[in-house]
């Protein structure tokens, strides 16, 4: 997939997730979450090529510019969207599926200093509310919703609703089970 195709896909995802988006130009020029994602893709390539220091310095410069810190070692899927962005932190071994949305103040962090997998994995279509903390090498299943300010430290099955401190998972059903249409980009 070409770089231009990825950018277009990201702009469409922003339009789908943000009802305040007015024009594609506004999204491209004014959405710091998208700027952080685009910079992450560059820094991740530099990281995978073995140039770790330049990749880390690049990610820290982007943090300075956008308020979003994404470690270049993190794996991020397609159509990822960060709404408002400020204060988002995504750790080195985090894995994020396709069509995931995060709000401001979200942390995908570790719970230990050990080697190996230390950060969470978010399945496709997960939405994470403002201020939520998802910590450790856990899996949040596809289509789950994490409530604002929840603290998630345990695995959650697909289509869960996670709320509270510590968060507890309960079935939320699918969009179709609530009479809602499935967004076109997920079809």
UniProtKB/TrEMBL annotation:
It catalyses: L-serine + acetyl-CoA = O-acetyl-L-serine + CoA. GO terms for molecular function: serine O-acetyltransferase activity. Pfam families: Hexapep. It is an enzyme of class 2 (transferase). Keywords: Acyltransferase, Amino-acid biosynthesis, Cysteine biosynthesis, Transferase. GO terms for cellular component: cytoplasm. The keyword Transferase applies. Its EC number is 2.3.1.30. GO terms for biological process: cysteine biosynthetic process from serine. The keyword Nucleotide-binding does not apply. Pathway: Amino-acid biosynthesis; L-cysteine biosynthesis; L-cysteine from L-serine: step 1/2. Belongs to the transferase hexapeptide repeat family. PANTHER family: SERINE ACETYLTRANSFERASE. This is Serine acetyltransferase. The gene is cysE.
């Amino acid at each position: 997939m070409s770089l231009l195709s990825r950018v277009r896909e990201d702009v469409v995802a922003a339009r789908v997730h943000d009802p305040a988006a007015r024009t594609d130009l506004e999204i491209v020029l004014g959405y710091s979450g998208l700027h952080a994602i685009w910079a992450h893709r560059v820094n991740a390539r530099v990281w995978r090529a073995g140039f770790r220091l330049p990749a880390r310095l690049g990610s820290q410069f982007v943090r300075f510019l956008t308020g979003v810190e994404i470690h270049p070692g993190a794996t991020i899927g397609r159509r990822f969207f960060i709404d408002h962005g400020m204060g988002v932190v995504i750790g080195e071994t985090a894995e994020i599926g396709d069509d995931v949305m995060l709000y401001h103040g979200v942390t995908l962090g570790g719970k230990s200093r050990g080697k190996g997998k230390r950060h969470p994995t978010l399945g496709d279509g997960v939405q994470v509310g403002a201020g939520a903390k998802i910590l450790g090498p856990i899996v949040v299943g596809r289509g789950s919703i994490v409530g604002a300010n929840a603290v998630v430290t345990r695995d959650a099955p697909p289509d869960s609703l996670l709320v509270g401190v510590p968060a507890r998972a309960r079935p939320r059903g699918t969009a179709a089970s609530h009479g809602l249409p499935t967004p076109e980009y997920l079809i």
